[in-house]
Description:
By secondary structure, the protein is an alpha+beta fold. It folds into two domains: 9-46, no CATH class; 60-296, Sulfite Oxidase, Chain A, domain 2 (Alpha-Beta Complex), CATH 3.90.420.10. The chain has helices spanning 11-24, 30-39, 63-68, 82-86, 110-116, 143-150, 188-192, 244-248, 291-294; strands at 46-48, 57-59, 95-100, 106-109, 120-127, 132-142, 158-163, 183-187, 197-202, 205-206, 216-218, 231-237, 272-275, 282-283. The strands form three sheets. Strands 5, 6, 9, 10, 11, 13 and 14 form a seven-stranded mixed sheet that branches. Residues 70-74, 128, 163, 182, 211-212, 224-225, 227-230 line the site of the ligand Nc1nc2c(c(=O)[nH]1)N[C@H]1C(S)=C(S)[C@@H](COP(=O)(O)O)O[C@H]1N2.
Amino acid sequence: MKKIPSSEITPEHVYRSRRSFIKTLGFVGAGAAVLAACQGKLPEETSAVSGGGSTQADKLTSYEDVISYNNYYEFTTNKTGVVSLAEGFKTEPWTVEVGGLVNKPGTYDLEKIRSGFQPEERIYRMRCVEGWSMVIPWLGFPLSELLKEVEPTSEAKYVRFQTVYDPDQMPGLSNTYFPWPYIEGLRMDEAMNDLTILSTGLYGEELLPQNGAPIRLVVPWKYGFKSIKSIVKIDLVSEMPVSLWMAAGPTEYGFYANVNPNVDHPRWSQATERRIGESGRIPTEMFNGYEEEVAGMYEGMDLVEYF
Ligand SMILES: Nc1nc2c(c(=O)[nH]1)N[C@H]1C(S)=C(S)[C@@H](COP(=O)(O)O)O[C@H]1N2
Ligand SMILES: [Mo]
């Protein structure tokens, strides 16, 4: 194996060497294992995407790009400016309050999250509504595991998520154009879908602030803005939550926000996307390539009306 100077050992290097080691044992994780079984050996530079059928292989976005090109408006709307403004963001102590229409509301601190849930690797395609995308090896656990613990009542129809509101640490909150705090929501079946995870890490490392540390949502078949960062509150509710983006631009951002190449944003096409770190554009897939797993939830729904 090629020697890498220690100064250049990024989590990506460590992650890749560990993965190739695991590969020789014939196991990379559920999604990849299926692909490996079908095709024999995985090409070094591609990775099986979790879900989205067993035949797709996508190149991972580099660790450097994943941690330096971000949308996190509580810090700044400048994608390459988040990293420096978020440096040193305090993520400990941290608690996530889980309540609303549940039998067993709970306060989850990081210790309780770490000991209660086992993170697994999920390689997901992520598609930003602005037309760029990444392929990220997340670490996380299904949101359904947490929701089952708190026992939603029969009145619970939606899940509402809220990001921390901390003006002392987040200079972007002074931008009064946005109705802070950042809010997002999912319908109950979407929240319970196995693809929906709470992520605490990526590339085998703990999440950095710019990616939503210490815990964020990841919903790979929806536009990136649904994957809300740095969550402090999760409520089970009976009415459809109004997200920050719905409040800021109701004609441009709907509640569902499913990736759909056939439904354009009012100001641009959604037919293609640019993979960060690669050249040119590629076609955007229905439900971001996760049609098999999620299309059933929207059967009979007009996806133009419910955008
Ligand atoms: N709280 C909060 N969550 C957020 C955002 C944000 O501005 N604030 N941006 C969203 C958007 S538009 C995208 S594309 C993804 C980007 O995630 P990443 O920076 O980890 O790639 O985070 C989403 N989650
Ligand atoms: Mo986005």
